[in-house]
Amino acid sequence: MQIEIGVVPQYSIGVRPERFICFLGILCCLLFAIQTHAQEKKVESVIDSILPVNLEEVIIVASYDHTLEHRSQHKPLSTLDEYLESSRKVSMIKRGAYAWEPVLNDMSSERLSVTIDGMRIFGACTDKMDPVTSYVDVSNLKEVHVSGGQQGAEQGSVIGGSIDLKLEKSDFVEKGWFGSVETGGETSNAARILGGELNYSDSKFYVDTDAIYRKADNYSAGGGDEVAFSQYEKYNLSTNAGYRVSEGKKLSASFIFDEARDVGYPALPMDVSLARAYIASVSWSQKSFLKHFTDWETKLYANKVTHVMDDSKRPDVPIRMDMPGWSDTYGFYTQANLRLESHRFLLKLDGYYNRSLAEMTMYPEDPDENSMFMLTWPDVRTFNSGFYSEDMIPFETGYLKLSTRLAINMSNVADEFGLNSLRIFYPDMPQRKNRFLKSVSLQYYKDLDKFHVNTGLSYGDRAPSVSEGYGFYLFNSFDNHDYIGDPELSNEKALEANAKVSFKGDRLSTSIEGNYFFMQDYILGEVDPSLSVMTIGAEGVKIYKNLEYAHLFNISWENEYDITPVLKWTGILSYHRGVDDDNRNLPFISPLTYKSGLQYAQQGYTGSISMKGAASQENFNPDFGEDKTDAYMVFSLSMGKIFTIDSNTLYVKLGVENIFDEYYSTYTDWKNIPRMGRNFFMNVSYAIN
Amino acid sequence: MKRIKLFLAAIIVAAGFVSCSDNNNDDDIIIEVNPLEGYNMLTKLTANTHSIEIYSEQDQFTIGYNELFFRIKDDAADTYISNAEVSWMPVMHMTEMQHSCPKSSVGVTDDTSVYSGYVVFQMPGNDTEYWEMTFDYSIDGTSYSLTEKIDVLAPVNDKRRVTVFTGSDDVRYVLAMMPLDPQVAVNDFSAMLFKMESMMSFPNVADYAIMIDPRMPSMGNHSSPNNVDLSYDATSQMYNGKLSLTMTGYWKINLKVMDDDDTLLKGEDVTDENEASSLFFEIEF
Question: Which CATH topology does B40-153 take?
Answer without folding.
Answer: Immunoglobulin-like (2.60.40)
